[in-house]
Each structure stands twice: as C-alpha cells, then as structure tokens.
Design brief:
The protein has 216 residues and is mainly α. It has nine helices and no strands. It has one domain. The N and C termini lie far apart (91 Å).
Length: 216
C-alpha cells in the first residue's frame, strides 16, 4: 500500500504541474504565446521586408525564440504514454506553418516569374526563399532534438517498465520519431550548406566584375 500511495501522490503532483503549465499563458496575447501566430507575423515580415528580415537573422533566432513555448508544452509530454513527437500539438503547428510558408512563397515566385527569368534580384529572392524554407522545415526537428531527446532519455532511464507492453510500444514510437527528427535535421543541415555554397558561387562573378570595375 505504501508504494501505491507514493504512486498516487506522484500522479497528483504531475497533474498539478500539467494544469499549472496549461494556465501559465492563458491570459497572454496569442502573438507572444502561440507559435502559429508568432510565425505568421514573422512570415509577413519576411514576405514584405525581406532585406530587413535577413539583416535581423530572424531564422537563426527562431529556435531560441520558440524554445520556451516548446519547453512549456513538453511539460505535458509523456513518452511512455504518447511517444510520437510528430503528433504533439507544437510539432504539428510548426510543420503546418512551414507548409503554409512554402505555399505563400511558391505563389509569390510564380507571380514574379518574369522577373526571375530576366535575372537580377528575382534570382536572389528565389535563392533566399529556398534557404529560408530549408531552415524553417528543420525547425521542428531542431527543437525536438534539443528539447525532447533529454526527456526521452530520462524516461528510458528512470521510468520505463520493461515488462509493460504498452509502454514499450510507445517507447518504440518515441525512439523512432526521435531518430526521424535527427535524420531530418542532418538532411536540412546538409541542404543548407549546399545552398550557402551555391549562393557563394553565384556571387563570385559579381564580385569579380566589381573588382575589375574598381581597378579600371
């Protein structure tokens, strides 16, 4: 009975923590508490004022900006009860936002097709779009690897009942989804490196022309 009482107290404490986490930002504006709303505002900035967006290095700041909200959401994640990270609300929000951004940029690129075909800044914008989409697509994976993997490791080490078939199935799902996130992050990093290299190669002729003009 002592063990049962301890388990009941632990369950009550976990329930209290989850309830408090859900109420923590209940009175906060969605523009500072909802990842989807935050990303929509930033997407509008990127779409309308791309130079200032890039100068502010917004994409590089997104993991840090969204990490507190994801940490808060992960307080309610139980890897041994619902292991698949891709089914977590915060993950679905970020994935959906990336898909929406891809659609918006594709529509904008289609409208500017003549400019891109003619060269000039249209090509630069298309390259910028590809790089931004690569970073945005990797955002859920980066946050999952940074914030969820330690929780998964803790669950395996301290909470997993090796004789529980239900927990083991959820753990398999959790490990599988975490491995998928790690692969997605590695692929996005490789793609980002290739895009950066391509951008540098594209800029070399322009730099050479500028140097030649200055020398002349």
């Amino acid at each position: 009975s002592g063990g049962g009482g301890w388990a009941a107290r632990l369950a009550a404490e976990l329930g209290a923590v989850e309830a408090a986490s859900r109420d923590l930002l209940s009175d906060a504006d969605s523009e500072v508490s909802d990842p989807s709303t935050i990303l929509r505002r930033l997407d509008a900035w990127a779409r309308d004022e791309r130079p200032s967006y890039e100068q502010a290095f917004v994409d590089l700041c997104l993991p840090t900006l969204l990490a507190p909200l994801v940490r808060l959401a992960l307080l309610c994640w139980r890897p041994l009860a619902a292991g698949d990270l891709a089914q977590q609300p915060w993950h679905r929000q970020l994935t959906s936002a990336a898909a929406s951004l891809a659609g918006e940029l594709a529509a904008a690129d289609g409208a500017a097709g003549g400019e891109i075909a003619a060269g000039g800044r249209g090509e630069e914008r298309a390259a910028s779009d590809r790089a931004m989409l690569a970073r945005r697509g990797a955002l859920p994976a980066r946050l999952a690897c940074d914030l969820a993997l330690p929780l998964l490791k803790h669950a395996v080490t301290h909470s997993w009942d090796v004789f529980s078939l239900r927990q083991t199935r959820q753990l398999v799902a959790a490990v599988g989804s975490a491995a998928g996130e790690a692969k997605a992050l590695a692929a996005a990093s490789a793609l980002g490196w290739r895009l950066s290299s391509a951008g540098a190669t594209q800029q070399e002729p322009e730099a050479a022309e500028a140097a030649e003009a200055a020398a002349g």
